[in-house]
Design goal:
23 strands; 4-stranded antiparallel β-sheet; Elongation Factor Tu (Ef-tu), domain 3; OB fold (Dihydrolipoamide Acetyltransferase, E2P); 5 helices; conserved putative lor/sdh protein from methanococcus maripaludis s2 fold; disordered N terminus
């Protein structure tokens, strides 16, 4: 299901943050410098420089990077199955084989006829050179030899097609046959899927597709592993839009490593594609931001007095807000002493601590 990019107005963000603090809703949604009781519950926090990102979000589905169906070329009985569903197999590994007794007989007969036709042709050519036979007899021998050779090649091919080998290193994701089963030409014998790397397909609405490009980093969280984040990158953006749940969208493919084999085809995921990444910017706790008559402020202490200071914000994360104007290095802002503050943490592989972001419009 398509998930539109989250666009959250600051008043809504602050209301949500305040509702979880139990008793500070009024102070977070509207500043009041006359409320001295609330002032006593404030603490100073220095602004800092760090990294912040903006993302486009969508639901995604895990799929195999490559998928190959091993299909029977000829009818026959399954004589042996060498693997199990879910098993990892190597390239050219034998998966199953048909009963080959009849094929062996055909192959031996074809070889005998071929050898006989070859010997006949050699004799006829000698006789033709000696002008002992006509050109028509030579042509008949040449035709018989060509026909025998074609039949031999066909017998060899049919014999080889009785053995089903994996074309890639991958996982047996489907094995619909078992020994003694009869299969017809075109029937699936096994499905081999390449699951490392693996891909996630997401559908991005037409409004946000202009922000995407191949090579952008992505963060994937699977419903099956809600506390685990997987890192990937955009490898393909569909050139033509489609309609998903009534919304015009583009199919976007994200590729990621799956060495542990945790991700499996069909799993539901949330995909966040990083469209903007800023480093060395001024950041404050999101709780420090407040709204007064449509303007954005932070509370600062000037001597013994607390006052509102107008600021201009940029990107907003779950815990932090970028300050574009109004504060500088070394400044401090006031936040509620009762509100736990998240600290910037560096996520492995992501300098500065990448977390889900929301842009204020």
């Amino acid at each position: 299901m398509l998930l539109k990019k989250k666009k959250v107005w600051i008043p809504l963000i602050i209301l949500i943050a305040a509702a979880g603090t139990g008793g500070t809703l009024y102070y977070y949604t509207r500043a009041d410098t006359k409320n001295t009781a609330s002032m006593a519950q404030m603490r100073e926090v220095p602004v800092w420089r760090g990294e912040i990102i903006d993302t486009t979000q969508a639901d995604g589905v895990v799929g195999a990077n490559r998928r190959f169906a091993l299909r029977a070329k000829n009818s026959g009985e399954i004589a042996r199955v060498y693997v199990s569903e879910g098993e990892m197999v190597d390239e050219k590994q034998l998966i199953a084989e048909l009963d080959t007794e009849e094929l062996k007989i055909r192959l031996r007969q074809a070889e005998i006829k071929f050898n006989s036709a070859r010997q006949t042709l050699e004799r006829v050519r000698y006789l033709f050179e000696q002008k002992a036979i006509s050109k028509g007899e030579l042509e008949d021998a040449e035709f018989s030899f060509a026909e025998a050779e074609e039949n031999l090649n066909l017998a060899k091919l049919q014999f080889e097609q009785a053995f089903f080998k994996s074309p890639i290193r991958g996982v047996v994701t489907s094995l619909p046959v078992q020994e003694t089963d009869m299969v017809s030409s075109g029937s699936d014998v096994a499905i081999i899927s390449e699951l490392d790397p693996i891909k996630v397909i997401a559908y991005i609405n037409e409004i946000d597709i202009r922000l995407l490009k191949v090579g952008q980093k992505a963060i994937i969280v699977a419903d099956a592993y809600p506390k685990r984040e997987f890192q990937g990158k955009v490898i393909k953006i569909a050139p033509e839009a489609g309609v998903q749940d009534g919304v015009v969208s583009f199919e976007v493919t994200v590729e990621l490593s799956n060495k542990e084999g945790m991700l499996k085809p069909g799993m539901s995921t949330e995909v966040q594609i990083i469209t903007t990444q800023k480093t060395d910017v001024l950041l404050v706790p999101r709780e420090a931001i407040r709204i007064e008559e449509g303007q954005t402020f932070v509370m600062v202490r000037e001597g013994e007095k607390e006052t509102l200071k107008k600021v201009r914000t940029g990107l907003i994360s779950v815990n932090f807000t970028e300050i574009i104007e109004g504060l500088k290095d070394g400044d401090k802002v006031l936040v509620s002493a009762q509100t736990p503050l998240a600290t910037p943490a560096v996520r492995p592989g992501a300098p500065g601590g990448i977390v889900p972001m929301m842009r204020v419009r």
